[in-house]
Amino acid sequence: MKKYFLFDNEPITGWNYWMRILIGTLSIVLFGIGLWVLAATGYKRAGTFNWNKELRVLSAIFIPFNGVINILSRDSYYQDLPFSFLDVIVLVGAIFHLVLLFKNGNKQRIH
Asked: What is the pTM of this model?
């Protein structure tokens, strides 16, 4: 269980990423510790692709942030606006999340 909370170099697959996102989301609702789990999951999945340290930290910040912004965009105030900057953030976050989910990090690189 401890491995869900560590920011280390453990490579995780797309399926593990999906399961950890699900567990992190449920633990936000149930225990409030899910943001840490989501951040560690984003960090580890970005490390699977050998992304540099800055992109890994960006993943660790943006994955939980995107979930919070997604919830905020459902507020009636933002839904009544014809255009909201939160919608743009949610769209960019969804694309980033889908890249982390579906990109294959196990391919051999040809130099």
From this structure: 0.81
Residue 23, C-beta contacts closer than 8 angstroms, at least 6 positions apart:
4, 34, 37
> Which CA distances in Å does 87 have to 13, 58, 74, 75?
28, 19, 10, 12
Q: Which amino acid is at 23?
A: I
CA–CA separation, 55 and 51 (whole Å):
6
From first to last of its 111 residues, the chain has per-residue pLDDT tens of: 667 788 888 888 888 999 998 888 888 877 778 889 999 999 999 998 988 999 999 999 999 888 778 777 777 877 777 777 777 888 888 898 999 999 886 555 444
